[in-house]
Amino acid sequence: MILTLDVGNSNIFIGLYSDGQLLNDWRIATDKDKTSDEYGVILMNLFASLGFNLEEVESIIISSVVPTVMGSLKEMTDEYFEANLLTVGPGIKTGINIRTDNPREVGSDRIVNAIAAKSKYSPPLIIVDFGTATTICAVSADGSYLGGAIAPGIEISTEALFNKADKLPKIEVNKPSKAIGKNTEDSLKSGIYFGFIGQVEGLIRRFEEELGVDAMVIGTGGFVKEIGYEIAEIDVIDEFLTLDGLFHLAKINGLTGDDND
């Protein structure tokens, strides 16, 4: 079995693969204060719920945009697993040409998404990841990673608005019935929800103009189900794109633990 961990600012997205198939996935809160034992016990319980134990994992691959969590996770893998560990970073085989000014500064999550998208779909591609931050990345027709855009995610944008504007009530973000709000709450819902969608749609159009071709647009990330289906420009919703990218990286870097390696 191969265990994949995508460590984001809000959640750790976990996947368990066997024989080339995703057996199960989980999301747990990212917490820099959690110890290796706390993370280990969480995983132990998640595995037990499926009738598995940690000893069955032969390889682990981790992608992280939260350096402060990596110490605990690495200790956890040493203490609770007997598995090969690979972390996504400089020096890892990616199988993709990164055509940015400084490839080392590109977030590992963005590279993993591009690798998965290239392996599953036909370039050129635009990948929209709805996470704590919204990232939009471009893959050229020849399969090269070109770069992209990073914007505040809908949750961050909403929290910033409520924290900075004392008179505005805090609301739950969901799709409003109309764009023209008749009261403050409905106006907030409209501005946040439809405004966020408009931002993503505008960036997709600009990306396609610069690419010079129509690209397949893939939506993924923790908030994709809430937002992605409302954006007509998105062709495919792929909730497991990042996990599949990590599994693909594990294979091309020679990690054992899967019969399809």
Describe the protein.
Helix 1 crosses helix 2 and helix 3 packs across helix 7. The strands form 2 sheets. The protein has a 5-stranded mixed beta sheet, with helices on both faces. The protein has 7 helices and 10 strands. The longest helix has 28 residues. By secondary structure, it is an alpha/beta fold. It is 37% helix and 23% strand. Strand 1 and strand 2 form a beta hairpin.
Name the average pLDDT: 91
Number of strands: 10
| Strands side by side in the biggest sheet | 3-2-1-4-5
If you compute it from the alpha carbons, what radius of gyration comes out, rounded to the nearest whole angstrom? 19 Å
Helix and strand topology:
Layout: E1 2-7, E2 11-18, E3 21-29, H1 36-49, E4 59-64, H2 67-80, E5 84-87, H3 108-120, E6 125-130, E7 133-139, E8 145-152, H4 154-164, H5 184-211, E9 216-220, H6 224-227, E10 236-237, H7 241-252
Parallel strand pairs: 1-4, 4-5, 6-9, 9-10
Antiparallel strand pairs: 1-2, 2-3, 6-7, 7-8
Salient structural properties:
about 260 residues, alpha/beta, five-stranded mixed beta sheet, Nucleotidyltransferase, domain 5, about 35% helix, 7 helices, 2 domains
